[in-house]
Amino acid sequence: MQAQQQNGQPSILQNQVVVFSKNYLPLARVNLKRAIVLLVTGQAESLFSSTQQWEVRSPSVILQIPEHIRLTSVNPERHWKVPPVSRREVFRRDNHTCQYCGSTKHLTLDHVIPRSKGGGHTWDNVVTACQTCNATKADRLLHETGMVLRTKPKAPIHPAIAFAEQFWKEQAPVDT
């Protein structure tokens, strides 16, 4: 999609470029300015030459910026850790919705397997619950209450993997 300047002319510097890792894993979308820096400094190279390219001119050079670039080196400092279980992160993961009834009011945290019965404070055991459902479940297991989780709790995944999954879903051909 072409961005527009105030005078109606397209501003190609607002376009997005997909950055792939050295191992061809799509990592992120960056604007054209960042892509230029990566290409000029040798940190990235052009990828998939048959895709769209944008021409960027300076007084001394004309650059062809492709729609996809690949990093040429690995940054060993960029390690990602699973964040600790916290109220804010659990609410974000569960979309601020009770995982038993779907309510968005008076939310609390609930341990699927109660701590008193050996359940830990881990990503796969903590869910968002409204006060009513949390009180109904109390200190019991799900099969004892007849309650059912809407989604299975799980730890957040690496942001690059989440982006890659979304990228490949967008690239899938549409069935007609």
Automatic annotation (TrEMBL):
Pfam families: HNH. Residues 85-135 form the HNH nuclease domain. Gene3D superfamilies: 1.10.30.50. One of its GO terms (molecular function) is zinc ion binding. Keywords: Endonuclease, Hydrolase, Nuclease. It comes from the Bacteria. This is HNH endonuclease.
